[in-house]
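User: I'm writing a tutorial on reading structure tokens. Could you give me a worked example: one chain, its sequence, then its tokens, then a sentence or two explaining what the tokens reveal?
Assistant: Sure. Here is the example chain.
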Amino acid sequence: MSKRFLQPHELTRRSRSARGLGSYEQFADGQWQDIRVTLERQGWNGTQIEMLHEQLRQGWPLPMAKHNVASMTGHCPLRSRRIG
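And here are its predicted structure tokens:
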């Protein structure tokens, strides 16, 4: 069964308020902390990462969120693009 349309709080087992907002948010593309580390390695800046986080909270899949943020900011890190 797809978990794509569940809210982040429905997928997480730990309280966000107990460990800090967003620490254990789970999205269709993975846990927020893991996604964030990957974005940082790809060269996304802090402002863009927060924008991506908001896009994911709104239900956008990660590839579309990246496209949206790149369009809004006019910047897409080269390492974030897939080859092939």
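What the tokens reveal: The mean pLDDT is 80. Residues 46-57 form the longest helix (12 residues).
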